[in-house]
Amino acid sequence: MRLLVTGGAGFIGSNFVHHVVRHTDYDVTVLDKLTYAGNLASLSGLLEQRVTFALGDIADAARVDDLVASADAIVHYAAESHNDNSLHDPYPFLKTNLIGTFTLLEAARKHGTRFHHVSTDEVYGDLHLDDPFRFTENTPYNPSSPYSSTKAGSDLLVRAWARSFGVAATISNCSNNYGAFQHVEKFIPRQITNVLRGVRPKLYGSGHHVRDWIHADDHSSAVLAILQRGRIGETYLIGANGEKDNRSVVELILRLMGRPTDDYDHVPDRAGHDLRYAIDSTKLRDELGWRPLYENFEQGLTATIQWYRENADWWAPTKDATEAFYAQLGQ
Ligand code: NAD
Ligand code: DAU
């Protein structure tokens, strides 16, 4: 099996490539533009093995066509992925998430290539704190931000190319990931690296917003299961029953790092901030027998904190620019 993994130098894509090398004998080509969010160091040690790196843009049809021609399956992670950036400058989100996905789908159609599209629970909008239900595969789309609306649009493109052109596609929508190799712009690594630098964590608004955390390695095992055993044309939701409010997560990070649990700042809230995400992954569990390995969030977070402690060389070069961006926003 020869996989083409787009966005494989990013957070979740690189975790997936590590997972594939550990658990299969597949050959992998990573197609990545190496935007501010991509880092080849996340693949270090793998490029000498069964992994090849191709620098390029998923919206570049000629580049994509060559690579798709020699792949058995595409696993599509590449995206502009950060909500705060999408509020500041939406255009790259339209270009990569919509035109990039369209470009890949056209190549998959031409070459008859299996296509797995990696998406997000944010396409469903948000839930109230006391809603008794969670997102399922049948929840109507209702995205809130430029980021999530372009991810919703990319999902709809995949559905249309599957139905109208017979592309052998599956889609997964996953909840918030944490783990190694996550850019310091994101909530958990931002707070860990702030504490490591002696800076107080920054909580948007009141901090009562809820995210449903899953370890990136569990996301990878779910995507691999869908790629290998998922039914063509189906969507699967991926989640590990990890709901936590943001304030509790900041307090836990501070406690695990030996700081007083009130040693953080409230900063202005995100515009249009989704209140709560929660995934019901029954379909994935019942149909494909998938189970997460990291069911204890505190253990997973402890390992993640340790990873950032030991890998300052990986994150330090991006920290100042990230904090300068947040400083401009007063966050
Ligand atoms: P990330 O921002 O860490 O990585 C994105 C990668 O895509 C980077 O390596 C970047 O260089 C590359 N890229 C961006 N634009 C490109 C282009 N035009 N051509 C080629 N490569 C390009 O993102 P992530 O957090 O790893 O998310 C990966 C995917 O998973 C995204 O599709 C995202 O919507 C989805 N997802 C993320 C989460 C999460 O919690 N982070 C949860 C569910 C789904
Ligand atoms: O749900 C899946 C989504 O999870 C993915 O589709 C996105 O790509 C990924 O970025 C993530 O989106 P969020 O917006 O939920 O993640 P983020 O890490 O930006 O923020 C998590 C929560 O923490 C959110 O409620 C905003 C809050 N926050 C964030 C930052 C950066 C803070 O309170 N302080 C911060 O400094």
Automatic annotation (TrEMBL):
Keywords: Lyase, NAD
Keyword Lyase set for record: yes
A Pfam family hit: GDP_Man_Dehyd
One GO BP annotation of this record: nucleotide-sugar metabolic process
Cofactors demanded by this protein: NAD(+)
Key word Transcription regulation present: no
UniProt catalytic activity: dTDP-alpha-D-glucose = dTDP-4-dehydro-6-deoxy-alpha-D-glucose + H2O
Domain NAD(P)-binding: 4-301
EC numbers, comma separated: 4.2.1.46
Gene3D superfamilies: NAD(P)-binding Rossmann-like Domain, UDP-galactose 4-epimerase, domain 1
Gene Ontology MF terms in the entry: dTDP-glucose 4,6-dehydratase activity
Family in the record: Belongs to the NAD(P)-dependent epimerase/dehydratase family. dTDP-glucose dehydratase subfamily.
Name of this chain's protein: dTDP-glucose 4,6-dehydratase
Species in which this protein is naturally found: Mycolicibacterium gilvum (strain DSM 45189 / LMG 24558 / Spyr1)
